[in-house]
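Box 3.1 A note on notation
Throughout this textbook, protein chains are presented in two layers. The first layer is the amino acid sequence; the second is a token string describing backbone geometry. Keep the layers aligned when reading.
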Amino acid sequence: MNKGKILFLLITIVAMIFLLAVVFWYKEYEKKSRNLSDYVPDSALAYTEINLANNGLNDYLDKNKKAKDYLERFILENELAVNIWRGDVEIDKMGLVILPGKDGQLEKVWLIHGRDNVRQLEATELVDYFYAVLDNQTAALTKSRKAFQEINSFKPFKGMGRLNFQKDNFLINGFIKSDLWASKWQEIADLILANKQFELKRNEDVIWQMAVVAGGIEFSVKLPIKLELKNNLSQPDNQMVFLDNTLEIQQIELSIIIDILKESLGNETNIDWNLFEQYVNEKYNINLNELYTFFKQPVSVILKPKRLLLSINELFIFENYDWVIISQGKQEEKLNMVINNFESLIQNYLAFKYPQMKTKVLPDGSAGMELVADVEKFNWQDKSDDNFLKKSISYQDGELAYAFMKDRFIFGNSLGLIELVIKAGQKKEESNTNPYEVRFDTAIIDNDFLNLGKILWLDSEIKSDGVVIRGRLENGSN
């Protein structure tokens, strides 16, 4: 063999070795750089990823034993083996995958990303678990044979994950498929969005992220909902009134309150609201549309539960609360007339909602009984003091009341709560401005996550492709 052929052969062999090395290196690099979410099958209904290597998370957990216990309880109650969670292998990321099971059941799989080689976990004694190493740093663990087979046979490729989890500032990320959340959203929306147009994008996921910022938990949730408000709400002039054990919504349409009154009247008396409007207009010359304009939009609402709320669902049941509505009343020459019309409206509303049985003499002289709307049964009582105009009206299930505090008109179903609002407004009137729309005192509800902080702040942004909810859970009072 001549020298040229030998040189060509050597070059070919070296090139092949180099090519094989590059291919091997690329595959190993691809495995190491792969996100946990790349291993999540398309059939997954939900996914939560926890970045245990996040310094912000570790600092927060070191200072908040309650939060640390909550995280461990969440992980173990969702079927991660105790001897893996508390074992010697350092876990820097973990992901909980929810897969559909038989007969509507949900199957759980944990994806575990180790700081070093996770093959050390193979030496861990596991009872009633299926375990597989997916790559040198990633393993899967589940109690479900079906879920194990699905995860183990799934072939990911780089970049296929639904979410980008490369942002180090987020310690927990996840998605919920519309199959899980759409029906629940529909139920809630029917309660609080009766007069709005909304559309669920059922083929899109709810995306959420969470981080520790300045000692509090901040999060954002993107809901794939197309929502159209009846009116374009301006930013409210009202300052927040900070009360313990309350939920305050700073920016809400007055029409929502009217919708609640309409529904209540219709459900309990079978009386059409339009007929009611026509009646008060003809009898008292009250035009409800003109009365609505007395209140600046939007209004604030403060809700104070009558008892400890035991579930998230109970948050959305209006009957669980004492409530007040706070509006910046317009200064008008016709203020007294507007107030008189307002009082007449409430009296007639109660008369229609709680009709009285009265004797009626028939044309033949006989007597019969009939239900009538008796306005005289409902009278306003003056509760004013030296500083504020206050009135209340009683009915069989409770009371309604209103008051004026400077240019604020306050109306609600509890004179006691109105007086608390006035007292709090006097004390902190100059400092209670806040960029958030909702202030939520978590003491009103029995919920392990919400009870990690004292105050939950919420804000929302309506976009063309969905609604983004942002929040902050903190221990401060303001």
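The mean pLDDT is 77. The longest strand covers residues 91-100.
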